[in-house]
Amino acid sequence: MKQTTPFTIALAGNPNVGKSTIFNSLTNMHQKTGNWAGKTVACASGTFRYRGISCLAVDLPGTYSLDPHSQEEAIARDYIASGQADLLLVVCDATCLERGLRLLKQIRDINDGRPQPVILCVNLCDEAEKKGIELNFTVLARRLGMPVIPCTARSRRGLIRLKEKIYEMYCSHEEECGILPAKCGGDQRFCPQASACTLCPSCGRIPDFNPAELAQSAVTFHNPDFFKKQEQIDRIVTGPITGGAVMLALLMGVFWLTITGANYPSSLLWDCLFALEGRLADTLLALGAAEWLVQALVYGVYRVVAWIVSVMLPPMAIFFPLFTLLEDLGYLPRAAFNMDCAFKKCCACGKQCLTMAMGFGCNAAGVVGCRIIDSPRERLIAILTNSLVPCNGRFPTLILLITLFFMGFGAGGGGLAASLATAGILTALILLGIAATLGASRLLSKTVLKGIPSSFTLELPPYRRPQFGKVLVRSVFDRTLFVLLRAVAVAAPAGLLIWILGNCSAGGQSMLLWLSSFFDPLGRLLGMDGMILVGFILGFPANEIVVPIILMGYLQTGALVEMADPSALMEIFAAHGWTVKTAVCMAIFCLFHWPCSTACLTIKKETGSWRWTLAAILLPTALGGILCFLIQAVF
How far apart are CA 553 and CA 566, in angstroms? Predict the structure, then answer.
């Protein structure tokens, strides 16, 4: 008979066991991601076909236990207990078998009395081989009474055998439902009706077992010194003194690579996009479009979008792969371990370190990453404080100010020493952002978000050789392009607004100058001027266009202008009263001001509240305003 509904397979397992890698290998690109009903936890599902059958794979959140302490664990437990899946694929780590068996035992207990087909997939077998760990899969299968498939998902080893076993389970399922004729021929090992079978992949009855005892029977350690080597590395990477030094060195190295590496691709992308500007204008004029419409669409909308793409894309395309590389290597959980004590003193969660690190690439991505924090109170603290660390969009402004006012144009002339010095000063500003994050987290936890810091399980995964191809694809498609497309969607209408303000006059001066005059008293109070504040306000869609808007207002060009010559820039800034104090105040306000539009929309989506979104806007803005006022008043 023809298959009417997909054969549903739920993938369950601990975090960091390669469950999602198996899911991606099975489904390829036939996936969709969304939120569980009524939850902010993301779920992924996908389809694949094998030997003519259609399968639906559901990637459950990683969990250590079905005794729920978080949304993720509750979702995994509820789905497993509901019986919605036709087959449970339990994935465990070959290097830590006992922990996976403990979850498997809980799955057995939660389904006691209602048989459900189960396959145990033992992943990371390559890591086990490197560590001298030998597993006896025959003993496992016999004692568990279920199929046990060894697998190395990163290299796709064992996946064909896994698909074959899924196909067998599907056939047994269809036989049990009476859709296919029985083929077992009385063999109790594969008989769905047998009540006392011990190796029955169709009914999935799991005999009772002791995880520790079974792991001891099935696992042999041939190289115990391997774990000593990893412990020696961890003593350095997570040490009380060396851990911070390593983290600081990696942070500075990532920013140096981002700053230095983005220059050439950014310039190339700039030339390509702006070479089309004149041709686009000529084409519209040839089609009979009005001059003002051409100006608005090409030199307003298109120019702003092209500017943001050429400036935003290269740094993100470098930062996110580097961030994902550290994640794939196994370093980021260790960074969270290093920062856990500091966040605990602030009554926050150590996992906030990971979301803060994601904020360096994009605050919107950092806000989404806050889903990994179990406590709603601590998750909200992480969301509200995420924009206190600068994203890639603020780097161009910070680097320009460092270059012009603190490096004597040195960084503009290139050279290793100049780029390292720029990265060093930028790192110092970022450390100020981290200190502000800790301070604001403590303030919130002692006032409007009072509470006791929660405990959580933080696993230090083994160090692994990163898969550069998958890292590149995952970081570019899942993070870089996602953020870029959101920014472009907001930048297009913002470009039109900026053009209107720069080209529509009232009383003999542009509306942009009227806005500048209105905000000038406040700007002077903060050590800047009205046009600088207007630049930040109109740069709400993307921080990359703050300085171009300021130059557009100073020069009254009616459109964003490029100014690559440092000497010419200094002359313009000096003519409008800029001093070193102005640059310091602007750098501080660039570091601490409202999140961009993409981040604000993400905060609203994650919190479901405009009130908390407003709080996320006011918190960094108030801090930046107070610091700028103090600098202006004291110095």
Answer: 18
Per-residue pLDDT reduced to its tens digit, 309-348: 887 778 878 887 887 788 778 888 888 788 888 888 888 8
One domain, residues 272 and 218: no
Per-residue DSSP letters for 383-424?
HHHGGGS--GGGHHHHHHHIIIIISTTTGGG--HHHHHHHHH
Per-range mean pLDDT, top range of 354-358, 480-484, 505-509, 580-584? 580-584
DSSP structural state of residue 174: H
Pair 154, 267 in one domain? no
Give, in order, the Cα–Cα distances in Å from 303 to each of 128, 219, 230, 444, 561.
54, 63, 51, 41, 9
- Residue 538: CA atoms inside 13 Å, Cβ hemisphere, count? 35
pLDDT, one tens digit per residue, over 75-106 is: 888 888 888 899 999 999 998 899 899 999 88
* Same domain, residue pair 100 and 215: yes
Average pLDDT of the chain?
Answer: 82
Q: How far apart are CA 150 and CA 137, in angstroms?
A: 8
Domain count for the chain: 2
Same domain? For 151 and 264 the reply is: no
Q: How far apart are CA 307 and CA 313, in angstroms?
A: 10
DSSP E strands in 202-337: the ranges are: 219-221
Both tokens assigned to 62: 């990683």
Which domain, by its residues, includes 566? Answer: 242-634
